[in-house]
Structures are given as C-alpha cells and as structure tokens.
Sequence to fold (545 residues):
Amino acid sequence: MFGQMQDSPLLVSQLIEHAATLYPEQVIATKTVEGHWHEYNYKEAALRSRKLAQALLRIGVKDGDVIATMAWNTYRHFECWYGISGMGAILHTVNPRLFPEQLDYIINHAQDQYIFIDTTFVPLLEKLQAQLPHVKGYILMTDSAHMPDTSLKNALCYETLIEQESGDFTWPVLDERQATSICYTSGTTGNPKGVLYSHRSSILHSWAITAKSVGNIDHETCILPIVPMFHANAWGLVYASAMTGAKVVLPGPHLDGKSVCQMVNKYEVDLTAAVPTVWTMLLQYLEASGETLESLNSVLIGGSAVPRSMIEKFETVYGVEVWQAWGMTEMSPLGSLNRLSKQDKKLDYQQQLDIKVKQGRPCFGVQMKIVDDNNTTLANDGSAFGRLMVKGPWVVASYFKSDKSALEDDGWFDTGDVATIDASGNMQITDRSKDVIKSGGEWISSIDLENAAMGHPDIQEAAVIGVAHPKWEERPLLIVVPKDATNPPNMEHVLHFLSDKVAKWWLPDDMAIVTDIPHTATGKINKLGLRHQFKDYKLPITQNA
Ligand code: AMP
Fold:
C-alpha cells in the first residue's frame, strides 16, 4: 500500500523563493571581478533570478536547452544557478581552468546555446569561439559601463538583458527528475565526462549538506564558498545557503591568502570551504602577516587529502576546526565528512588527529563499501583496502549522452579510489586506483607518503609517484618543492623524518627537488603530468635492492 501524502516535486526554484520569503534581508556579499564589494539580499537575488528567467525566455531559450556559465563565484553567477535551472533549462558550469581543447570538447558535447561569462574570460572565449558554431551568443556578466570591446559574436550585457524584465514571473512546475545542471569531470585521461544532476538529486544533496552532523548550516551561519561554482557544484553550498537563509560571501576571483583573510574578518564568516591549495596560501599569509581569523569556526576541506600538519595548524594556532570532506563530481559531490564523535573527542589530540586525517563517515543517503578485485566485500577493519564503491540518490547512474550505465552490474558506482573503512565507519582514501604504487606485489599509498612529507618543516609541497624498478616493479619517488629554494632539504633528513610515520619498506627510493608541482584544473596534483615529466627517471639501484 502506498502512503497517502502529497507528491509535490522538489525543485531548485523553491530554494530561492523560500529564502526570499523567510530571509528577505539576509546579505549576499560579493567581491566583484571589478574589485569593489557588492551587497544585496535574498529578496533582490530572487527578483533578479526571475528577471533572468524571463530574459532567457525572451531570447528563445527553451526547456531542456543547455546554457553555460564560465564565471567566478559572484552574485550574478548565483542568479544564473536559479534563473537557468528554475526556468527548465540546464546550467552547464564550465571550468575555465580546463585546457582549451577540453573546453572546446565539453562546450560542443553539451551543445551550449548561450554562455554567460565573466569579463576575465573574454580573451579565452574570443580564441575559442570559431570552434563553437552552435553557441548563439555570449552574455557578459557585467553592467554597460564595464562592457569591454570584444569580437565575441552576439555579445550581450547581463545588466542590460535583465533590466528590461519585470520579475513578475511564476516558476514552472517541473518534473523533479528533470535536469538542473551539468558538470564535467576534469578527465585526466580521455575526454571529460558530463554528470547531469536533477532537481531531486540537488535538493536531497542540499538537505544532507545542511544537517548538524554535516555542514551545520542555518540562518545564523555566514558561509564563504571559495570552492568554485564551476567545480563540483561549489559542494552544494549555493543551494544549501538559500535552503537555510545563511549569509553568503562570494569571493569573485580574489582567492589569495590576503583577500580570503580580509573577507573572513570583514563579514565575520564562520564556515568556509575549499581545496587544500587555497588553505596553504591562507596559512602562509597568516604566518607572514600575524593576522588571525577571529570569527571562523570551521573550515571544510576536500578535493584532495588534507595533510595532518594543515589540520593541526588550523586547530591549534588559529582555533578553527577542520572538517575533511570527500566526494566527487559524480556524487554532487558530497560522499563523506569527518566529524569526530563524542567518544573521539575524549581522546588526546594526537589520537584525534589520527582520525581527522581520514575522509570520514558517509552522510545519510550515501552507502559505501570496499571490494577486492573479485568484487568481494572487504572487512571494515581499518586495514583491508580495496576499491571504494558507492550508492545513493545523488550518485551518477550514467554519464551525459551515454547510453551505457556507469554502474557495476550490482548497481554500485566504482569511485576509482582505493580506501579502508574502520569499525566506526570512517573511510580513508589510500589512493586513486591508478596512482597507487605497486611494489613487490604490495600497494604503497602515494597519498600517505605525500601527507607525511608535507609535515617536514622545509617542504612546501610534496608529490609521490611510482617509478619503474627492475626488481620491485615500482618504487616511490618523492618530488618536493622546498620552502626555501636556496636551501632545499636533504634526502637523508627527509627519510629520517618519514621513518616513524610510514612503514620502512614504503620509504621513497629517491627525492627530486623541483620549483613547482603541476596541478589539474581542479587543484589536484597532476600525477599524469608528473609521470610524464619523470618517465625517463632512473632510480638509484642499491646493492641489496
Ligand atoms: P572531483 O570529481 O574533481 O571532485 O574529484 C574527485 C576525486 O578527488 C575523488 O575521487 C578523490 O580521488 C579525490 N578527493 C576528493 N576529496 C578527497 C579527500 N578529502 N581526500 C583525498 N582525495 C579526495
């Protein structure tokens, strides 16, 4: 027998209307591309989102059309999220840090009809536009006073476009399974793949994010989402803030340590989110300037493993609690979050850190398991490691425009990560399956080695790759950027430093000093690039190796 409750669809337009009705005066502040601060509130954001929806209809956009954005986190981009998806079109958030050939591929693959762009990206799209024949026009996210001269075909001004509308618009009642948006994976091998989210998946994911045991977000929270809206949905924070009426601070393109510190202090931000590279810049700035982060309670860090030294510095020096998150574009993106249990909090701090370096427990809605190569489920004992599989209503089922399922026969999605799960359900990523170092039939976690090396006082950044070895198949090569290029750390000291942190047979066979480590478009260490760079590298072979 079915329940007898209303079956009203879950739609993202309801989020912005909810915020406008219940928290009309709540502030949304933006450090604009032009460099000044812009402030308005949910009531105005909702009105302008409706005007945008009307403008899109006027220029001929239809239900199901794909409309792209290539933009920083700003109030206009925020309006696009609601205006485009709310009227029934599909928002494609393009990551401008992708290589030009990947941009060309994804814009053509998605068949974007219009592209909303920040003026920063005008030169990039001017070069690309000849390869994008189906794009009908480019909408520059600025006002008429700041419209640049451009060769972009059919260049429209955002403010001019929406000022002609009244905002007197009723959002259509869509099917909740209808698509809201597309994000492409950064695709380190092969072409990027599109993940097509639905209204239903977006709302359920947003509810999960706001929960006390996850992001602990409500109308008293002030959120600074540094994680870009063009990468993995800004971790759902755009929707979660409207759902709860939280105050929002949007950083525009200003992501350096000084700017982030000023934003936190100016708006009394208490929750912020970004990948570790952003935090390295902020911590360096704080150390050099002596400034502090008075209001900040917690920082969500994900996208790559969070080094223990980073957690310790945030918590012991600046009094900011670190919540490590794990997820992926294919998961909207949240999968798990590390929040200590009451019991964990009674442990001494170093033992708490042993837990905090893990990627945490799945939030409600996500199921997780680890399996071996025969697809047999492994024990949750904290030591067995295997392929991490997930399931849930905001996990991809198939990729955009692919008629093949993205799932295994039993309905689980293979994340491509290798992990352990302990008895309390804390998952720990040990590697991407293609980055794990295979030495003498055993696996060495490149991530564990990198994290341990990052704690060395003279190391700025560390990466570890497997290099061919005549006896062991592969052995680890440690690649480091020193803090002081004129006085790099010596290998003996580094090995000694690592010796009580990892198993002896994991210790790197060699260390290379470099001036920088390449990163992917989403801020992760580009292992593929490093493997290419070091493809002819010969490890020193010792007598007993
Ligand atoms: P993306 O789709 O670009 O968000 O990348 C997803 C991948 O980033 C995951 O499959 C992981 O390999 C990696 N990742 C995300 N969060 C973490 C984390 N906290 N620790 C380690 N790796 C992570």
About this structure: Residues 185-186, 232, 302-305, 324-329, 333, 359, 415-417, 429, 432, 522 surround adenosine monophosphate (CB under 6 Å). The chain has a mean pLDDT of 95. The chain has 15 helices and 25 strands.
